[in-house]
Write a structure and sequence with these properties.
Keywords (chains A, B, C, D): DNA-binding, Transcription, Transcription regulation
CATH topology of the largest domain in chain A: Tetracycline Repressor, domain 2
Largest sheet of chain A: none
Distance between the termini of chain A: 66 Å
Strand content of chain A: under 5%
Pfam families (chains A, B, C, D): TetR_C_24 (PF17932), TetR_N (PF00440)
Low-confidence stretches of chain A: none
Organism (chains A, B, C, D): Phreatobacter aquaticus
Oligomer: homotetramer
Number of helices of chain A: 9
GO molecular function, one term (chains A, B, C, D): DNA-binding transcription factor activity
Protein name (chains A, B, C, D): TetR/AcrR family transcriptional regulator
Helix content of chain A: over 70%
CATH superfamily of the largest domain in chain A: Tetracycline Repressor, domain 2
Largest interface: A-B, 46 and 47 residues
Mean pLDDT of chain A: 87
DNA sequence: AATGAATGAGCCTTCATTCAT
DNA sequence: AATGAATGAAGGCTCATTCAT
């Protein structure tokens, strides 16, 4: 039987997590100390270790929370009934948005977690897979409907989309804002008909 | 008259640089200590500072050396006389190769340097620009020849290509090998004609 | 509720401060390492930084403590109702005593702090000013009472007294003892009537 | 038989010594590295050790040179035939001048040498004794001539003069200039007749 | 004679983590 | 349950001194 109420525990948990998100975003993982986080959360250093195993665990928790929050939106878009192009555009648009609005979390993931030795097989990797698989399912349904070429390499398309957005957004992270609408539209257009000029000028 | 021969100095320089490349690749920048590098290079801690200003400088040197080495190949490909598709394929192929063969350097760049606060305006950023500009010039020449649609967003294409390869190769970095030829061919194909199925079935 | 008692904290503080005073006195500021001090105080290196901001701060604390302790006596003497000569003698005597009994602190101040670039405007300089101003006020009251020549340069007198004692005591610091009474008496005598032989033989 | 000429050796010696004086003056003893000095002197690090045993020895040499240079003037003043007051004033004036013009050397002596463990019995201490003994001889001759009270403590007078000047000049070292003439005159006046107001108003 | 490459000890400070209170 | 004092290892960097060339 807990000595403090479950709600109080949840509040503590959340404020530590929030403080960590903030701090990691601003100063990076190595640049943030547990004392920083504890102070921002209004608790003692020691208490952090009651809620999280260690600093690394806290980082994972921050990213897990980000993924789960963002994924709700993406899955809603994927579940919607709409033509292939609309759903593709929707998911690309929302993903760019996530990158732009939560650039800090993305940067954390890219520079601190994805490269870590223990990333393979981690919970965060599972989440990342679920995240990207949403896009994969959309493309699969496009193929099923005959809108997308069946000989396409789905995983390659996935990497093209996520990779392009990551690259694209990076500049925006440090400085001038990114035009989300234009970028989403441009990417969809490029994906639909490719680079090549065509006599018939269809695209 | 130098106290040691130029060759000996070059050797020292190279062994420190090599040890640093190895160590950074395996344990990351923060995870590597100067003592680690010195030990691996068979020199004293202090000597590292005779050849490199500080730890950060050593990281820059590792990446500069990688970029310059790889860029020689890329520029040769870009300079070749060949149809657009051939040159595009060539450069994509070589870039994937670089990623696969020197995954360590790429990982370093991505996770330690590109995200650093002082990346903007740094020498490494200059090199990265030169690197990516090779691809940009190929696309421009494709437009000039009328092979590529003139309304294409070149910077978006660049981000698609580099981003896709980065994402794609990531899996290969940790574990199973990547089929370089297939990946290059698939990416070129996707870029040429896009995702969409076509009645004429040209692609 | 504090984790350890206030007394225990005070003890820690004092033992670190004491160890620092001892170590600085024996080996100078640069010659003393934090590890030396921690070992002598029976604590870990890290704990020193919980009680003092850094090494420099520790030095300031040592000197502040010395000044404040000594100043209590000096101010009591200055506040006493007594003829000018008595008060002058009292303060000179006590100042010499401080120099002799706490030669280490004086040496520290003279050789490590007063010459430092950041001395001007520092807290220690404030204390030093308060310290010397006690003497200045006594001389001023001597002038007010008509016992001391009104055309005297008070700051020069101050420098004569403190400078002389500093010089004088220096020998005593390293080796043979100084006769405090004789020195105080001699200095007062010299200050009262100067060097010159006088026909009337008054002095 | 030396492989290089004695003159060349002397030049080397002097340029190293000069570079050291400059560097110590500007950055202090601890703040100056042998490499700094070697660079400024236009020689290699190693060569410094052919001319001086170690860094400490170099500091001693700098101060010895200063003392010897200044002492020539002082001894000339002491040797002059003149009334006591004139000679006393002359030597005080010249000493203040030395302090003001070569504040750096004085600061070095005060903060780096006089406090060192090996000062007692050192060559620099010998020089310091010779330096101060010049003043002592002047006072003795004043006593012999009956101008100075015979019951005066000569060593105390010496400490008063040198101590006062040291204290006085210190402020001048960091900032506003010191009026050498006024200070010398004021000190002589104070020493001659003391602090006390006198009915006859002789002083 | 002269160089300067090489050494390696040393130092201040930070901080994740533990545990007595 | 909560605190925060305490630990102690680790790390980047400097520099006096030596000695092979």
């Amino acid at each position: 039987m807990p000595v403090i109420s479950a709600k109080r525990m949840q509040d503590r948990h959340d404020s530590i997590l929030g403080a960590a998100r903030e701090a990691f975003a601003q100063r990076g993982f190595e640049g943030t100390s547990i004392a920083d986080i504890a102070r921002a959360a209004g608790v003692s250093d020691g208490l952090v270790y009651r809620y999280f195993q260690n600093k690394r665990d806290l980082l994972n928790a921050v990213l897990t929370e980000f993924y789960e929050r963002t994924m709700v939106d993406l899955e809603a878009i994927a579940a919607r009934e709409a033509p292939f192009e609309v759903r593709l555009h929707g998911i690309i648009h929302r993903h760019i948005e996530a990158f732009v609005l939560e650039a800090d979390a993305c940067r954390l993931f890219i520079s601190e977690v994805r490269t870590a030795a223990d990333y393979q097989g981690s919970a965060v990797q599972q989440l990342n897979r679920r995240y990207t698989s949403i896009l994969v399912r959309i493309i699969e349904s496009g193929i099923a409907k005959g809108v997308v070429r069946s000989d396409i390499d789905i995983r390659l398309v996935r990497d093209v989309i996520f990779g392009a957005i990551e690259h694209r957004t990076w500049a925006a992270v440090n400085g001038r804002p990114l035009d989300i609408d234009a970028t989403a539209a441009g990417l969809v257009q490029l994906l639909r008909f490719g680079l090549m000029a065509r006599p018939e000028g269809e695209a």
